[in-house]
Design a protein that fits this description.
Largest sheet: 5 strands, antiparallel
CATH topology of the largest domain: Aminoglycoside 3'-phosphotransferase, Chain: A, domain 2
Helix content: 40-55%
Oligomer: single chain
Strand content: 5-15%
């Protein structure tokens, strides 16, 4: 760990009125998933801990993302969302010091106990309840100027950063498929046209999945919200329920969707039938984004961890497409089958 990084974190805490002398602390690096940011845990000799996060040096985009994380995080915390408390921030470097939520993620519990565990199910139930509250309360007073990326989830983003990402990173770069480019583009246009009709005036996390949900003292806590913006309700719920890391069975997904709707409709009037229609469309969009991201991270970033989840994500995509009308998204249905076949052929353990 860079000594300057350590000293800056301690000085930042001291500036915020909390004494953390460098000779009385122990630091341990933390490994992020797909991020280029630097993370470390700071432990005082008296037992207190904090987490320090910083973008890579001289990374202008990373700095903007860090500033967004500081502003959005303070807003969400004030709105009662279960996000970490933020203690101090250096705007010139992007260094942030925040509450330490430990190391247990919801995904870890799924791996350890299984998705049929009563404890795991209870944490998922708590998660969907807190999600609905965060989405509704988090949009109140939300300033889109805080967003480092785009202020709102919209049709352009769907086409460029989700279906376009899927097409480039997975189909072309990783699997090198021979496709009907004109017809697949038409399917993506149709899907985006329909998905963009959903009300996009709520708080959107945009990477709401089990590895971004911590479990601390019986309570779920949400992290990695720095790409937050305004968007539709169903997107984050879909991100959670179709999460390839967890592999939730369909009956549990349905149970959690119903619990989410019960919480949501207690907060504001929302037509349940309309929500379910929006959910399917936004789940398809999110699934395309997941596949693009996993392909990019495994190939371009050299992180093979993500490749193992491509097949589950493709099976999720096929299951979602099966719920659409037989005549809809025919080219996308065919391409998803091609992807699975090519992925199977390319498996490293296949002889």
């Amino acid at each position: 760990m860079n000594k300057d990084f350590i000293q800056q974190a301690c000085q930042l805490l001291s500036t915020a009125g909390d004494a953390w002398p460098a000779d009385r602390i122990h630091l341990s690096p933390l490994t992020p998933d797909g991020s280029l940011r630097r993370f470390c845990r700071i432990q005082h000799e008296d037992g207190r801990t904090r987490v320090a996060i910083a973008p890579p040096p001289d990374d202008a985009v990373g700095l903007q993302e860090a500033i967004a994380g500081w502003q959005i995080g303070r807003h969400l915390f004030a709105a009662g969302a279960p996000v970490p408390e933020l203690y101090a921030f250096a705007e010139e470097t992007g260094l942030l010091v925040c509450e330490d939520l430990g190391e247990q993620r919801l995904h870890d519990l799924v791996q350890e106990k299984g998705v049929d565990s009563e404890q795991v199910i209870q944490f998922y139930q708590q998660t969907v309840t807190e999600l609905a509250r965060m989405q509704v309360r988090g949009c109140q007073g939300f300033n889109s100027a805080w967003c480092w990326d785009t202020p709102r989830y919209d049709r352009v983003l769907m086409l460029e950063r989700e279906s376009g990402y899927f097409l480039q990173a997975l189909c072309r770069d990783l699997l090198q498929l021979d496709m009907d480019e004109e017809n697949i583009a038409q399917d993506f246009q149709t899907l985006a046209d329909r998905a963009s009709q959903a009300d996009a005036s709520f708080f959107l996390h945009r990477d709401f999945q089990s590895r971004n949900i911590m479990v601390q003292q019986g309570r779920v806590r949400f992290i990695d919200y720095q790409a937050g913006r305004l968007g539709p309700l169903a997107y984050d719920l879909a991100s959670l329920l179709i999460d390839p890391y967890a592999g939730l069975p369909a009956p549990l997904q349905e149970e959690l969707l119903e619990q989410y709707l019960a919480t949501l409709t207690a907060l504001l009037p929302y037509d349940r039938s309309q929500f379910r229609q929006e959910y399917l469309l936004l789940a398809l969009q999110r699934n395309l984004q997941i596949l693009g991201a996993f392909a990019f991270l495994s190939q371009q970033r050299g992180r093979p961890f993500f490749r193992q989840y491509l097949s589950p994500a493709l099976h999720n995509l096929q299951a979602l497409l099966a719920k659409t009308a037989t005549s809809e998204y025919l080219c996308l249905k065919a391409v998803s089958r091609q992807c699975l076949e090519r992925l199977e052929i390319a498996r490293p353990d296949r002889t």
